[in-house]
Amino acid sequence: MREKVIEIGGVSKSFQRGKPVLKGINLEIARGEMVALIGASGSGKSTLIRSLGGLERIDRPEADKSGEGCISIFGKNMQSAGSIGPGANELRSQIGIVFQQFNLVPRLSVLTNVCMGFLGSMPRWRGSLAMFSDDEKRQAMMALHRVGIAEQALKRGSQLSGGQQQRAAIARTLVQGARIILADEPIASLDPASARRVMDILADINTTDGVTVCVSLHQVEYALSYCPRTIALRAGEVVYDGPSSALTPEFLAELYGKESESLFLPGMQGVNPGSALPTDYIPSGAAFARS
Predict the structure, then answer these.
(1) What's the maximum distance between 2 C-alpha atoms anywhere in the chain?
(2) Per-residue pLDDT tens over the stretch 169-221
């Protein structure tokens, strides 16, 4: 039985009183899993990702529900009972978070942006001056080569395409040495070819390095192609947790009703798992670093 690296117990979150975004979430994710988190807009995917990374404080449980409301990472307290744990900073250094917005510094070089992944493990004064060693720069170049954009290293972050910026953000998690990657809709704003490449890279990191990956996705096709397990959220609650292969259009319609239509790429509502997908949507399987 694989070690549990993420444990979520009775987690709820509200931004407005009486309007919960997450409702009593209970989940476990094992080391080395690649898990998809799906759901329509407003289902709570981003809030759950941010809570796992300690970026969003979960609610304090009600008085009659003591012992609930906690998130543990590698068996250590990330947050519980509405408070961030004392060891949260150390845990955050082991979690790479990839956002939809890329979060690169536009005026800095791509190489420097990737080197930012070292900030959690170097003296603060050196990080504030962006003084990275030759060895750190070499590691950053290796990470850029791995994601296929080494030739872009000296360009400014703002000069990269959206797909290239997302790959640079993933390279930053590589130099960070992240043991868990939480990706919050990393392909939502990308064209199909760039989306496939980003998903290929995340899948390679998962299988080659054994890094646990939890990726929120708006289109179920990518969950079917890349993630053996899918967790489906609806209105802040887990409505399915199991094999991605079970996510037929009919089953999703039972879970989401008319909302299920938004979970498919255009023209894909009638495609069943295991059927041949249009070429635009099939994972390339190519060595992305070469292209």
Answers:
(1) 58
(2) 999 999 999 999 999 999 998 999 999 999 999 999 999 999 999 999 988 99
Judge whether 171 and 116 are in contact, CB under 8 Å. no
Residue 236 CA to its chain's centroid (Å):
18
**Beta-carbon count within 10 A of 204 CB:** 16
Q: Quick check: 163 and 197 in contact, CB under 8 A? A: yes
Question: Which H helix or E strand runs over 83?
Answer: strand 83-84
pTM of the model: 0.87
Q: How many CA atoms, within 13 angstroms, populate the side-chain half-sphere of residue 248?
A: 7
The CATH H-level superfamily of 1-94+180-189+208-291 is P-loop containing nucleotide triphosphate hydrolases (3.40.50.300)
Q: Which residues fall within 8 angstroms of residue 132, CB to CB, at 6 or more apart?
A: 112, 115, 118, 126, 140
DSSP string computed for 104-166:
--TTSBHHHHHHGGGGGGS-HHHHHTT---HHHHHHHHHHHHHTT-GGGTTSBGGGS-HHHHH
**Separation of CA 268 from chain center:** 24
Per-residue pLDDT tens digits for 93-132: 999 999 988 889 999 999 999 999 998 777 777 777 778 9
Which amino acid belongs to residue 291?
S
Q: Where are the domains of the chain?
A: 1-94+180-189+208-291, 104-178
Interhelix angle for 162-176 vs 192-209, to 10°? 10
